[in-house]
Amino acid sequence: MTYQAPLQDIRLVLEFAGLGQASATDLYADCDADLVDSVLREAARFAEERIAPLNGIGDRIGSKLVDGAVVTPPGWKEAYRDWSEAGWNSLSAPVEWDGQGLPVLIQAACTEIWNSASMAFALAPLLTAGAIDALAHHASDELKAAYLPKLVSGEWTGTMNLTEPQAGSDLSTVRTRAIRQLDGTYRVEGQKIFITYGDHDMSDNIVHLVLARLPNAPPGTGGISLFLVPRILPDGSLNDVHCHSLEHKLGIHASPTCTMVFGDIEGAVGWLVGEENRGLNCMFTMMNSARLGIGIQGVGIAERAYQQALDYAQTRQQGRAGGSPQTSPIIGHPDIRRTLLLMRSKIMAARCICYATAAALDRANRSEDQEERALGAELAGLLTPIAKAYSTDIGCEVAHLGVQVHGGMGFVEETGAAQHLRDARIAPIYEGTNGIQAIDLVARKLPRSQKALSLILSEARTVSDEIALRDGAQSKILAARLAQVADCLERATKYMRDMQAAHRHEDALAGASPLLELFGVCIGLTGLARLENARRDDEGIASLAVFFSNQVAVYAGALAESAMGGAIPHIRAL
Amino acid sequence: MTYQAPLQDIRLVLEFAGLGQASATDLYADCDADLVDSVLREAARFAEERIAPLNGIGDRIGSKLVDGAVVTPPGWKEAYRDWSEAGWNSLSAPVEWDGQGLPVLIQAACTEIWNSASMAFALAPLLTAGAIDALAHHASDELKAAYLPKLVSGEWTGTMNLTEPQAGSDLSTVRTRAIRQLDGTYRVEGQKIFITYGDHDMSDNIVHLVLARLPNAPPGTGGISLFLVPRILPDGSLNDVHCHSLEHKLGIHASPTCTMVFGDIEGAVGWLVGEENRGLNCMFTMMNSARLGIGIQGVGIAERAYQQALDYAQTRQQGRAGGSPQTSPIIGHPDIRRTLLLMRSKIMAARCICYATAAALDRANRSEDQEERALGAELAGLLTPIAKAYSTDIGCEVAHLGVQVHGGMGFVEETGAAQHLRDARIAPIYEGTNGIQAIDLVARKLPRSQKALSLILSEARTVSDEIALRDGAQSKILAARLAQVADCLERATKYMRDMQAAHRHEDALAGASPLLELFGVCIGLTGLARLENARRDDEGIASLAVFFSNQVAVYAGALAESAMGGAIPHIRAL
After folding, report:
1. Which CATH number goes with the domain that contains B140?
2. Catalytic annotation present for B431
3. Is the pTM of this model over 0.90?
4. Global ipTM
5. Which keywords describe this protein according to UniProt (chains A, B) (predicted)?
6. Angle, CA B79 vertex, CA B125 and CA B151 arms, to 5°
């Protein structure tokens, strides 16, 4: 089973997120339907023909460290070269650095397509995009001129060097050191772990962004600076940085996860990005864009797993469904149909969330109006941890269900269903674990996002009101559920505010994960209900909202109770 | 991190399941506390010292097909020999065939311990136990005498040969043929797939139980017979059966999953077990005991994953929890504690369900009273699909959470957390997928288990009433929740009966999986609440019930709604 980009679903959700809506404040005036259509169709073609077939090979062979350099699987290098030469890397990059300046929303749709085709492949450009963001926002003009054009074209790739053995979720303990030289450059020394595409053979240069500490820097996160450390120096010589070893991982075998050594000999040459001791700030720029990208990975891998399961369910004959005299394809059995609908409705919900996050970023970047830009930024900030965590959680769940639909064949590696489960498993972990996302949501984002929260709630209620006006019991039930979910979310977010006002942080943090899930359910159901309301002649789309409402959003009340459960004491139960 | 059998938890749940309770109808009069204690302690010692250390080796090296024969990983053979020589294989086997005749309940506790130590290792005896059951119930005296003693001692192992490429969940399409010979034996010809331990080097002989079709047998399941086909014939010659290939699987690498060829040359020699065309019946005996065993695998792998995650959470330093001035172990963070409590409380709930199933089997087998035996059998029948599916689902979930607690290290294979997730993934699939278990529960078991259902509901309500009598808001809340969960289960099971009475089978089947989960939540909460009520001075145990009630059982109302959602139409949404 190969991959076919679900262009109809993607177009529908793009439209829901604002693309192609004629309005006075149209952010997307430069993107007519023909342009969007041709971008999507070309992306689909490249992904289906060139990337998707590499996914299994990438898993079986993986990237290898040979004589100190990483060799990617057969076909990987050529596919990446053709992909970047076709301009795919520069889609939403700034025009001033030779990017195409297209909206993040269109980028999001393409990112989904690349990740469905191969998560391991799509990771490389995802990190380059983060590096472009960080440099475009924080680097000096000289650094920009020297690095951005080749990063934008994809001739060079970027990395994020944050983690050290003792410094994972908590970066305050970073130990890598950087010492300023007379010529204004820095010498960087230290070891970084879990560096995705830290070394590989697909591009001419690798541009490392490295968190390090200056001598006498203040302790903690306020003493960390960001440096650009290229694999190959401007004079063409090799910098003092190399890949020491590769991790042996559960999944995404083709994506090399490197332990990088900086300054084994005389110190790696680096340049400061942004101000000294403000490195974490610069990194956050990069991380926010990367976090949405990882959320979209969740959607992408889930879609791939769903397509494979659906195909199997339509062809595998087993048992007699509904009293049929002949054996039936297993999709005839209610429990299999239920499983497939659970998969598909959750994918569509997560797609709505991720695309809405991308649209919020466009609002922040593209709007002419200052207030609109501020609201867009607030909304994007609030939505990012939800997009990341909710979508990667459903990525694992859908891949898990995909294996289940295959029965025994799902456990056999040749089938490919298990690879999706293995690949999907990283996404809730990297770029900040989903637990960290939930903490970010409750402790950092919620207190400063009252407008964005109001917007989310009022959108749910508006859609609910519209549907409630229609005839038919099913419409009333859907409308009532959506209103109820919004009420649950309002109650649970108020609880969080109250707890924080009372300095009862443990009570708030203990419910952070269920609160994040509740946010996901509310925004997802709002999206699906909007689609249903707009296309209720389309039985397929309409039934997704109804199913998600009855089988997923039905848990909203319990999620809210769970979120408001209060602190978990340090008990002896563990 | 190695494994330590959680003897305190196990003893507690054994007690709750009836062991050691002094009563007039004590089924376990022959098992005094000292005996139980020494069995558990010796099992723990063997598992911890001899089996657990092999688990990682088994995963990395796996079983291999070398010159047509399966070679198990280093140390496997010796461990199995010492294990069976110590008498562990014969624990609950019939005394008349040299078994020790101990209760299934004690066997269940040991099965959990073996599976925590290594799922792949524990699978071999699990299948032997199924073969012993089938032969003891259905074979001729001659066959019993020839095969049972060596199967009971563990010198020989057993297999279940059901699946063929076209015949998985639906065995009606089995094609393997058997032809009666003049000497009363049969010649068996055909290919079977997914045969666990179909070949290996750990025992002197392998006793295959094979489903096959006689010439002119009626079509469908009524035309399938069961045959005993030994690897080595009574005269010492090799039978015409061999392993053609091994599957390359996601997990349990040390457990060889064989494609078996019977009768490549002149037909494998086999003996009929039970009557002609009644093979599926005999196989069901075997499958029911195996299904409980697989449920216990879910508990076992979850316990192993939990212990490893807990250990990591207690040692890994990251971030400052609760405003601490120093970095804290990550268990200090509320979201990690929440995750660990979710893991532990679900394990204890599933342990309660599995041990209750084992106790029901003891009631069916050991009671003096005819009515009690019938009730035990009915209860065991109803509980078996719940024990299998609920426990293996939480097995995957807990292993998934275990990876998450490890952060990036969880995705690195050397850590070992990912192996538990890969190993756990098979359990919801084999011995009847969890979807099949749910169908079995709704379509077959529920309609004939009114007494057993009443027992489950009245037990929940009795415990609730007892707790409600106590002082304190927390007791009232727990009691109310348990009563509510019982009400939900009663309502949802009534819905299933109504649908079936109205021949609306699709409406019933569509809700089978959530109904099964609701059963699990009700029986699990009843168990935890009983433990809480008996040991409320033990903060650790008491808080498990409260947490499970507030964070898991809180979803019971929604599960009931989901179960009663009605038929899923054949829509175009897929």
Report:
1. 1.10.540.10
2. yes
3. yes
4. 0.97
5. FAD, Flavoprotein, Oxidoreductase
6. 30
